[in-house]
């Protein structure tokens, strides 16, 4: 309230100031209310934007979920297609390799006869053609096996010197035909690996080195470095440029050598796959025109460790030994007969199945060795034949199983009954070495 002593003018001034203060307060209240309204409107707009973005995100997640389902279906289809491919190759391998194996046996028997120069040339060209087909089929089957998620390796101690001796016998003719020196440096190294795949690795490296070497030769040996035994294949060939070193391990990548034998470009791809699966590091050094060296790192095995299956030996002690053949294919039976009798001087008794083999063996005349094919007629198998023949003879007759199937279960079944497994196509020298080794082990 205003004092009564103030005059009218003073009281009017005070009322004016009070009115101005009230007007200012009302203005501020209006401003505050306008700001709150703006904030409210902004909040409503943000909420609407958030709802729109949420709907967009939900649609994107639904689309991603649909794409993931499509991807899962496509992946399952691709895996099934890969499994189907593997099953087909495994099933077809027997039918594909059977006639090739028979042809190789007949050609081997033909080469052991007296031929005129033209016939010798034709036989040599046929042998080369069969070797090319065999190499291609082995490469395709090896790649299929190495790409399979269910591949099984059977690692054991491998004596490299024995492997070298086998490779020397196998590749000496190829090197001589090219006018090259092929040398294997003796070694006492024993390494841990899968014998079958280690041999394939070495075969591909040696074969590749010979193919792309025009003059000089190929040297195979070992070096010990960084905790590994390094298998080295060194050649004096055309070499590999630095730009090409990254692609030489891809499929169907090969150097073109004028006038020389041409590979399929699968050998080094198999080497890379096998080394990767086995955990063996691989190195390559090369200079164009000055040669190449490939190295594969292998874990050493301590001396005195029991060795696995040997890597081959020259056939001996086969003459006059009796081999009972159990093979349902007539061409293969005849091929075995010609090879065993003509090349190794063995007595070959050829039968088509378990019942016929039992009848041919007789009561008191067991053979020295059984040579059986895994796939026989009417559900019969080489496993059943070997077991029946051993039971009838009352003794563990040495046995060699031959098959075109790359099936780990067959390898396990053969190991369980103590039969040596050989894969088709059958090389006469290899089969002779296996028979000799099997009979030598029995005599010992």
From TrEMBL:
<feature type="domain" description="Response regulatory">
    <location>
        <begin position="322"/>
        <end position="439"/>
    </location>
</feature>
<feature type="coiled-coil region">
    <location>
        <begin position="12"/>
        <end position="84"/>
    </location>
</feature>
<protein>
    <recommendedName>
        <fullName>histidine kinase</fullName>
        <ecNumber>2.7.13.3</ecNumber>
    </recommendedName>
</protein>
<dbReference type="InterPro" id="IPR001789">
    <property type="entry name" value="Sig_transdc_resp-reg_receiver"/>
</dbReference>
<dbReference type="InterPro" id="IPR011006">
    <property type="entry name" value="CheY-like_superfamily"/>
</dbReference>
<dbReference type="Pfam" id="PF02518">
    <property type="entry name" value="HATPase_c"/>
</dbReference>
<dbReference type="GO" id="GO:0000155">
    <property type="term" value="F:phosphorelay sensor kinase activity"/>
</dbReference>
<dbReference type="InterPro" id="IPR004358">
    <property type="entry name" value="Sig_transdc_His_kin-like_C"/>
</dbReference>
<keyword id="KW-0808">Transferase</keyword>
<dbReference type="InterPro" id="IPR003594">
    <property type="entry name" value="HATPase_dom"/>
</dbReference>
<keyword id="KW-0597">Phosphoprotein</keyword>
<dbReference type="InterPro" id="IPR036097">
    <property type="entry name" value="HisK_dim/P_sf"/>
</dbReference>
<dbReference type="Pfam" id="PF00512">
    <property type="entry name" value="HisKA"/>
</dbReference>
<feature type="modified residue" description="4-aspartylphosphate">
    <location>
        <position position="373"/>
    </location>
</feature>
<dbReference type="InterPro" id="IPR050736">
    <property type="entry name" value="Sensor_HK_Regulatory"/>
</dbReference>
<keyword id="KW-0902">Two-component regulatory system</keyword>
<dbReference type="InterPro" id="IPR005467">
    <property type="entry name" value="His_kinase_dom"/>
</dbReference>
<dbReference type="InterPro" id="IPR036890">
    <property type="entry name" value="HATPase_C_sf"/>
</dbReference>
<feature type="domain" description="Histidine kinase">
    <location>
        <begin position="91"/>
        <end position="302"/>
    </location>
</feature>
<dbReference type="Pfam" id="PF00072">
    <property type="entry name" value="Response_reg"/>
</dbReference>
<dbReference type="InterPro" id="IPR003661">
    <property type="entry name" value="HisK_dim/P_dom"/>
</dbReference>
<keyword id="KW-0418">Kinase</keyword>
<keyword id="KW-0175">Coiled coil</keyword>
């Amino acid at each position: 309230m205003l004092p009564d002593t103030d005059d009218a003018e003073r009281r009017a001034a005070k009322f004016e100031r009070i009115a101005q203060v009230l007007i200012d307060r009302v203005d501020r209240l209006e401003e505050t209310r306008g700001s709150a309204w703006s904030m409210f409107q902004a909040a409503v707009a943000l909420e609407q934007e958030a709802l729109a973005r949420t709907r967009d995100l939900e649609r994107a997640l639904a689309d991603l979920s649909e794409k993931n389902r499509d991807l899962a279906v496509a992946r399952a289809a691709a895996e099934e297609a890969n499994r189907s491919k593997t099953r087909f190759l495994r099933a077809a391998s027997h039918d594909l390799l059977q006639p090739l194996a028979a042809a190789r046996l007949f050609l081997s028997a033909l080469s052991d006869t007296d031929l005129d120069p033209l016939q010798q040339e034709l036989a040599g060209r046929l042998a080369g053609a069969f070797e090319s087909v065999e190499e291609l089929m082995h490469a395709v089957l090896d790649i299929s096996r190495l790409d399979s998620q269910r591949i099984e390796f059977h690692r054991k101690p491998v004596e490299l010197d024995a492997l070298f001796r086998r490779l020397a016998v196998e590749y000496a003719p190829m090197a001589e035909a090219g006018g090259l020196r092929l040398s294997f440096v003796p070694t006492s190294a024993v390494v841990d690996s899968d014998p079958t795949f280690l041999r394939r690795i070495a075969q591909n490296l040696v074969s590749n080195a010979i193919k792309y070497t025009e003059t000089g030769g190929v040297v195979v040996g070992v070096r010990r470095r960084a905790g590994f035994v390094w298998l080295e294949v060194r050649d004096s060939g055309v070499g590999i440029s630095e730009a090409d070193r990254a692609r030489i391990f891809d499929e169907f990548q090969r150097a073109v050598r004028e006038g020389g034998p041409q590979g399929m470009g699968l050998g080094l791809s198999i080497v890379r796959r096998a080394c990767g699966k086995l955990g063996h590091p691989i190195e390559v050094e090369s200079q164009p025109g000055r040669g190449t060296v490939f190295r594969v790192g292998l874990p050493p095995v301590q001396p005195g460790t029991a060795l696995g299956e040997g890597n081959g030996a020259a056939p001996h002690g086969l003459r006059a030994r009796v081999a009972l053949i159990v093979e349902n294919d007539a061409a293969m039976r005849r091929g075995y007969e010609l090879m065993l009798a003509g090349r190794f001087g063995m007595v070959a008794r050829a039968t088509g199945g378990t019942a016929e083999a039992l009848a041919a063996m007789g009561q008191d005349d067991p053979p020295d060795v059984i040579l059986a094919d895994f796939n026989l007629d009417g559900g019969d198998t080489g496993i059943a034949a070997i077991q029946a023949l051993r039971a009838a003879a009352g003794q563990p007759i040495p046995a060699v199983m031959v098959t075109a199937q790359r099936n780990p279960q067959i390898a396990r079944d053969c190991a369980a009954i103590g039969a040596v497994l050989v894969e088709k196509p059958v090389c006469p020298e290899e089969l002779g070495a296996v028979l000799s080794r099997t009979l030598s082990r029995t005599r010992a």
